[in-house]
Amino acid sequence: MNYRHHFHAGNFADVMKHVLLLQLLNRLNAKDKPYRYIDTHGGAGKYNLSEAPAQKSGEFLTGIHRLAQLDQAQKKNAPEAIQQYLTLVDALREQEGKGIYPGSPWFALQAMREIDKATIFEMQPDVFQQLRHHIRDRRVGLHERDAYEGLLAVIPPKEKRGVVMIDPPYEVERKDFPQLVELLQNAYKKWATGVFVVWYPIKDRAMIERFEKKMMKTGIRRQLICEICVWPDDTPVGLNGCGLLVINPPWQFAEQADEILQWLLPHLKMTEAGASATVRWLVGE
C-alpha cells in the first residue's frame, strides 16, 4: 500500500479529512488557552493538481473538483463547516492558481490563532524541501524526522492542549497497522489529554476490523470512528473509502462530524448502492 500524497491530493479522502480537521481545531479555539498542532507526516504542504502526479491519477476530479463545481446556492445551503473549507480553498486558488490544493498543515494554520503553535514532521528529503518552501510561518517548527520516534520526543507540549494528525503513506503500516497501534499506545501514555487523529484507508474491511479490535484492547477510552466509503466495501478499486480514528474528540464533535459526512456522501459517492458514511464510538467514556 502506498499513499504518496502527490498522486492523491484533493481526492475524496482529502476533502473528508480536511473538513473534519478544521472543525477539530475550531473546537479547540473555543477556549482561550493556546494549543499545539502536530502533524506527523506533513507532506509537501501544497500540491499542484495540474502537474503530472495528480493528472495521472485524476483522483481530484471526484473530490475537490466536484465541490468546486457547485453553484453558489448549493454552497450557501451546505453546512457551515463545508462553507469554511471551500472558502479557504477558493481564496488560496485566487491567490496562487486554480490548480493548487493545500495539505493538512496549511489547513491547520488557517484555523489556528496567533497564540497557537505547530510542529510538522516529514522524513522524505525531497518532500521536506517542498514543505519548507510552501509552509513559512513563525508559528511552525518543521522537522525532517521520522515521526515514529519524533512524536514521542515532542509530547506532551508545553501548551498542554493540542491535536496530533497522523496520516502516513502506508508503506510500512501493513496488515492491521500494528505500528500505529503501538505508537498510539505510547503517545497516549505520555499525553492522555491530547486529541489524536489517525487517517486510514479502507481497502479491506476485515483488516480494518482487526485494527479496531487491537485499538479496543489498548484500554484507551473515548475512541471515535468517522468513515466515508464512496464505493461498496467489496469493490476491487484502489480505495473504497477512508476513516478517521479520533481519540479524545472535543465536545459535540461527533454530532458535527456526522452532519458533515452525511452531506458529503451524496456529493462524493461513486455508486448509488453500497456507499456509506458513519460516525460511531469504538470505545466510549
TrEMBL record:
Classification via HAMAP family: 23SrRNA_methyltr_J
Function noted in UniProt: Specifically methylates the adenine in position 2030 of 23S rRNA.
Enzyme class: transferase
Cited Gene3D superfamilies: Vaccinia Virus protein VP39
Any GO CC annotation of this UniProt entry: cytosol
E.C. numbers: 2.1.1.266
Keywords assigned by UniProt, alphabetized: Methyltransferase, RNA-binding, rRNA processing, S-adenosyl-L-methionine, Transferase
Catalytic activity: adenosine(2030) in 23S rRNA + S-adenosyl-L-methionine = N(6)-methyladenosine(2030) in 23S rRNA + S-adenosyl-L-homocysteine + H(+)
Keyword Magnesium included in the entry's annotation: no
Subunit organization: Monomer.
Protein name, as recorded: Ribosomal RNA large subunit methyltransferase J
A Gene Ontology BP annotation from the UniProt entry: rRNA base methylation
Residues the record lists as binding S-adenosyl-L-methionine: 18, 41, 104, 122, 146-147, 167
InterPro entries: RlmJ, SAM-dependent_MTases_sf
Site residues, Interaction with substrate rRNA: 3
Family matches, as Pfam families: RsmJ
Organism: Acinetobacter populi
Lineage: Bacteria, Pseudomonadati, Pseudomonadota, Gammaproteobacteria, Moraxellales
Family: Belongs to the RlmJ family.
Molecular function terms, GO-annotated: 23S rRNA (adenine(2030)-N(6))-methyltransferase activity; RNA binding
Active site: 167 (proton acceptor)
